[in-house]
Amino acid sequence: MHKPFYIDDIDVLREKLFRAKRDGTLMGRVWDSVIRRSRNAPAQFPWFTPFVALITCEQKDIENAKDAIRNYVATLDPQTFGMGLQFHFWCFAFPHARWSLYFHWLCEIGAWDAAEEKKLKEELLTFQYINFFYGMRTKPEPECVDNQTMSLCFSNALLGHLFSESAMAKRMYVDGIRRLPSLIGGIPTSGYSGEGSTYMDCVVGPSIPFIVELLERSSGESWFDKSLPPHGGSADKVCRMIANEWMSSGLLLPWDHYGYTLPVRSCIAYAAHRSSDPFYGELLERQANWSYDQSIGWGYDDLVWSLIWWPENKKQERAKFASWSEPEVGAALVSDDAQLYLMQMWDESTPVYPTRAHVNPNSLILSAYGSPLTIDGVPDKECTAFKFEDTWREVSYMDIGSSRKFNFGAGCGGAHSVILVDNWEGMRAFTEYRQATMTAFSEKEKSVTSDVTPIYREKFPDAKAVRRRSRLCCERFWLIEDLAVFANEHKVTSRFFLRPNVIGSECGIKIETAEGVRLSLIPLLGPDKMTSTPIKGYPDRLDGESIMVDFTQQGKECRWLWLLWPEATRRTEADVSENWQAIPDAAGNLVLDAAIKLLGANPISIPLTIPPYLQRDLPVVRRWWFRRTINIPAATSWLRLPKQMLNLRMWINGKEIDTSSHKMRMNLMEPDISIPNQLQGNDVEVVLCCDTGYSQYAPDGNGGGGFYGKPLILVEEPVSGIEYAQYKDGAVGIRAGGKDFKVEHDIMEIV
Length: 751
Fold this sequence. Notes:
Blueprint: H1 10-23, H2 26-40, H3 49-56, H4 59-74, H5 76-80, H6 83-87, H7 90-108, H8 114-136, H9 147-162, H10 167-185, H11 196-219, H12 235-244, H13 266-274, H14 278-287, H15 302-309, E1 324-326, E2 330-334, E3 340-345, E4 363-368, E5 371-372, E6 392-395, E7 404-407, E8 419-421, E9 437-442, E10 447-451, H16 453-457, E11 463-473, E12 477-498, E13 502-503, E14 509-512, E15 517-525, E16 530-536, E17 545-568, E18 570-575, E19 580-585, H17 592-601, E20 604-606, H18 612-615, E21 623-631, E22 637-640, E23 646-652, E24 655-657, E25 672-674, E26 683-691, E27 712-716, E28 722-728, E29 731-736, E30 739-744
Antiparallel strand pairs: 1-2, 2-3, 3-4, 4-5, 6-7, 8-12, 9-10, 10-11, 11-12, 12-17, 13-14, 14-15, 15-17, 16-17, 18-27, 19-20, 19-21, 21-26, 22-25, 22-27, 23-24, 23-26, 28-29, 29-30
Helix pairs in contact: 1-2, 3-4, 3-7, 4-7, 7-8, 7-9, 8-9, 8-10, 9-10, 9-11, 11-12, 12-13, 13-14, 13-15
């Protein structure tokens, strides 16, 4: 057998995975879950089959992989006439490259007869040349540096390399690989491409290992940490930025267009493979969600490449979330226990028509005790809150012979937690210039200041200074200072987008999230003149709504000093993840009585942490039922369940509990289901019914992603709130919960 491309030593990889499975490590359990899906449901998990065949070389696994390749090639001709390929051809190029690679792997283990190998190779190569070689040439060089161009250039370079005996392939290789170094080098030195966490994590990041390894195998040089022209970008810096985008709450930063999402793992595994930084291993071993099969580069092989790159560490060094800064884009302040997280962003937005690169000068992202507190992202289609008067444009994209109006207000300043001037919600840049400057950052003091005056001065020439300073103080709370100075009087608004559910507060505003975390936002300096407006449909995920909070003042010099005080109102009382009875519901039509009868007859006993078919050789079906007896404490209680339990229904002692309010949110967060008070202090029977991610492509298959987490019993944790808070004589004084806090704070001055 020849060496499969991208795998230096197949025997070493096999030994790593077999040893991990034998020893029961996390890597071994992930590998085991991939094998189970590949063997028990190959048609539902086609992206896993070539890798499993390559590792095991068992004939049944090879046949499953061959069927997956044949089925993919059979889609090529129908794709040609689809709108998707015609208007989004880059979305098809990256997956096509990997399917071609997997075909090549099977060639290396002698899986094909000569005639079929020749036929499939010609079809894969021809489709690439017709659709993606000429598609790549539509991307201007060197101006175009984005996920689309990466996808196209990489796919041409890879197929050209794999099928180099063809003159057509040689041309694709030369034109594709020539552009790859500048695509990495064209990313700023921050490592941030400007396309938001979703595209960074799901396309740019997964591209990096493929590109670097292809360049290294082609040139014999090391490319991972090499700074490249034109802007000094490097693969190492991209990986670091992707790691920085992991919030300590388990979500990706809701940076720019798409909002909160779950992280992917393969780029982190590659960084752990190439770097000595233990933080990458920390993310893999202790932070990642290994049940959810997130799409990377428009395909479902993130787990495959995670297993390939994942280093085998005998003694895993612990690493913690730490504060960080990238002067071009933003900074994060993280408490030592990782329970409090703040990110202040000032990455440059797209002039005139901001879409993915939103207008967010000094916008804030906050989370506490595992719960997101602030909102960013995009609204759903029904939300009209950000259709500002001056943010309409006519577009003809995907409309032949006609045009339609499109509103880009969701990308403008009015849709973010920023300072607004004279009610201009459509705030944006109109020309290219440096929009912000980080003026101070201290990892030790956990403080950051950024000046964003230029993006205000373009519209308001009398702007002297617009700044925000954020501090994480005493490992317990935040101080945020806003300053806006003009030559003339203006109406200045400090806007915040918070999670819904406002509760009573004597000053400022207080919210409580669905996870039981409160945030008090109190102005210690500046007027407490506030309006709060519910925004239905923003964001299009998490709660599906938010609260827009505006504090306003009029003047030439406007200033606020905010106290942001978080409190956790629930604590873990018991871990109830073990010993759940489970049965599959293959037809998806069981009712409660029938399910209980089957649960009592011959149930499976499992921990309710991931779907049963990932733990044992069980049917890979959509719907499952679970049952367990749980002791409810004699206190206000909640049952926290794993995230991604789709279409969840729940019964306690035969009575159904309404879980509908959690349906959207539990795609990202573990739901806390309130236990009726009359059940306190009793043993109860809990029955659950939910759907799982049983297929990578079925309409209701959730991309193959399963639920993940630990069922816990939570109880109420009394909190006393803030007794007093004031700013006096250059210091902030706070009393809360019987404790006094005093923090020196010199307000910002204009020099």
